[in-house]
Amino acid sequence: MRFMMLMIPKGYESAEPGAMPTAEAVAAMMRYNESLKKAGVLLSLDGLHPPSMGARVTFPNGKPVVTDGPFAEVKEVLGGYWMIQVRSREEAIEWAKRCPAGPNETIEIRQVQELADFPKDVQKQLDGFTEMQPHLTRGKAS
Amino acid sequence: MRFMIIIKATPESEAGGTPDQALLEEMGRFNEELVANGIMLVGEGLQSSSKGARVHFKGTDRTVIDGPFAETKELIAGFWIWQCKSLDEAIAWVKRCPNPFNEESEIEIRQIFELEDFGPELTPELRESEERIRAELSPKPN
Q1: Is residue B124 part of a domain?
Q2: pLDDT in tens, B58-103
Q3: Fold for domain A2-111?
Q4: C-alpha distance from A73 to closest chain B C-alpha (Å)
Q5: How many Å lie between the alpha carbon of A51 and the closest alpha carbon of chain B?
Q6: DSSP readout, B55-68?
Q7: Which residue of A has its CA nearest to B4?
Q8: Residue A53 near chain B (CB below 8 Å)
């Protein structure tokens, strides 16, 4: 089963453009990433620049409306994620608990939808979508 | 530049339903267009938060909270990773995306941290470690 561990750092919703983690935090996180990789559970991971450098698109009445970040009234935002392959939700939670996260950080654990989770007719529609990804990932690895 | 395109949850997605055939077809065509233009690297959907959990960190304490989580609008239903030349290009593509749900919805665009975004805090050792982890990660499961 694949799970996403979503890092939600309190305060990141109002971080200035260009805000970076400290060297200490990066070093601790790298050791954790190494342990995930050594255990064979890590599939991918990324960190995100603050929302003040991003945008949101909404679709009221079907027409796209763009709002530049930071986003007012937002209580929590994503700071980064790990995609892991584990046997159960419990195992995913155990890995999250080992993360060297700071005070007032939260990791949300969410199961990734696999093709087999969908009804047969929906699976048929999604067929091409799964096939296109490994090819793309290999071709575009940066 | 890579961007994470975050599809925010809605009452519909949190209820755990699957999209209807018309929307799947429309989304399938959009994905094909993204692929044809070399934009899409990854795309995944997440199961509803009722199947997930959160781990909250405070000092050495770890508190596990089972889903579902109340703030539906702040939750994530799925995401893409895109390769674009600029935030503006990413926004332009998002504007062409079919409304991901049959109700009002929101898509957030966030830039991903690349190694070159870090200054000297990322020591040569950390940089090497990060590069090694990424090189060894398999492109996709299965």
Answers
A1: no
A2: 988 999 999 999 888 899 999 999 999 999 999 999 999 998 888 8
A3: Alpha-Beta Plaits (3.30.70)
A4: 11
A5: 6
A6: EEEETTEEEEEESP
A7: A48
A8: yes
